[in-house]
Amino acid sequence: MTTLGVSIDDRALALAQDGRVLSVAPAIVRRVGDAGPRGAPALDILRSRPAEASARHWSEIAAESAATQASLPIALAELRERLREACAADGAAPGPDSAWIAVSAAFPPRALSGVLGVARAVPLPVRGFVDAAVASVAPLGLARSAVVLEVGLFHVAATAVECGPTVRRRRSIVSRGGGLLDIYQSWLDVVSAAMVLRTRFDPLHDAAVEQRLFSELPALAAEAEASGVATVTLAGPGGEPHAVEIARDQLAAAAAPRYRELERCLHELRRAGAPVAVVVPAALLQLAGLRERFETLADCELVVVPDGWASAVASLLPEPAEGADAPVRLLRRLAALEVAPAGDAPRRERLAARDGGAVDPTHILHGGRAIALGARAITVGRDGNGAGINVSVGAAGVSRRHCTFLRGDDGVVLIDHSRHGTWVNDERVAGRALLHAGDQVRIGEPGIELALIAVGAESAQASAD
């Protein structure tokens, strides 16, 4: 019996069979079939002949937009073409006995009826859907909670997953309106501006040259990430060469808005200061400047999985116990898998481990004052009870007794009392959080900032009052 796994991820739509990845490619395909079969890869014409290519069909199906009906035939043509090519290249069976579909966080459950209709028209014997984040984590054997990151063509997202004998999706955050193609556009603008300044040649004023530059962007970003700088050489319409060097920091700065949005999703899901496993596809770490943003996650683990990993895991799932006629369900929990997909194994590394332990804070900085953290608790709110930090009565989102700083046996702890929430380093506190020197605490909306600092040689132990 052969089982096909399909990962509906428009950045890297993947097919796998019995644990082996057959193909991975962006969901950018031909809209019309004049110059090639409909649904065939069209990355090479997206910028030069955009009317002939489609990149939004899966995102429109996910959003259930007005364009969904027009997008369904394109998605069907893509799946048929991809399955035909993958099976022909790999020698895999063209007609699997069953199929599981791993779906990105961008797809709400109600949008899966359209995906199911497309898959059945291929035809694929779909046995069920599985949350792609849950599938990605199930074989990893993690001992801590995980946050799975994704960057689609038009969105970024993060999914919190609980780990243990059962792997369960807890919550997803999806930010639409940007994504990989938005990052690529910012890089096109950077290269164009640099080339105009140096050579007076604008690569974006010629469709063929712009397409060549667009096609080279992934390799350009990977080179810049690895060595700090990349050289772009383009031939003009007359064949004359134009070259310019682009620094990694230039690309990172241009992509910063999308990176910050991905970080926001991650921080919103991670309990303040909690060590988690951050699971990310390997291809995303080739985006210039993205890797370094994870270094602020002290004592967390970075787990790098190959592209197509979720589809390979889905292809290892068993037949549903109910049989082929059972309703198609979306699985948001799986038993931890003891078997892993074939091919490259995930890579793991520790992020920003605190050498020698964290440094305890000795003071809170607020309003130009340094307030010592001693044996006595310090309350922050609209009523500091005479032993804390009083905030203006008109401050939005600040409770009368909002939070308390307390020194205990383990160090300085922040205890949240409010309904509105308290954030440490942009991560919401769930009950309490252990604090370290350098942490930033925010209360209220738009926010009152409190900085934690360590003063003096004996910074790990504050003096008593």
Folded structure, characterized:
It is a single chain. By secondary structure, the chain is α+β, with helices and mostly antiparallel strands. The chain contains eight helices and 28 strands. The N and C termini lie far apart (73 Å). The radius of gyration is 25 Å and the shape is globular. Helix 1 packs across helix 2 (68-90), helix 2 packs across helix 3 (112-121) and helix 5 runs antiparallel to helix 7 (248-269). The chain folds into two domains: 3-177 and 260-350, Nucleotidyltransferase, domain 5 (2-Layer Sandwich), CATH 3.30.420; 363-453, Tumour Suppressor Smad4 (Sandwich), CATH 2.60.200.20. The strands form six sheets. A seven-stranded mixed β-sheet has the order 16-10-9-8-13-14-17. Strands 3-2-1-6-7-15 form a six-stranded mixed β-sheet. It has helices at residues 57-63, 68-90, 112-121, 132-137, 180-199, 207-227, 248-269, 309-314, and strands spanning 3-8, 13-17, 20-25, 29-30, 53-54, 98-103, 126-131, 146-151, 155-162, 166-176, 229-235, 241-247, 277-281, 300-305, 330-331, 333-335, 347-351, 363-366, 369-372, 378-381, 388-390, 403-408, 411-416, 422-424, 427-428, 432-434, 440-443, 448-453.
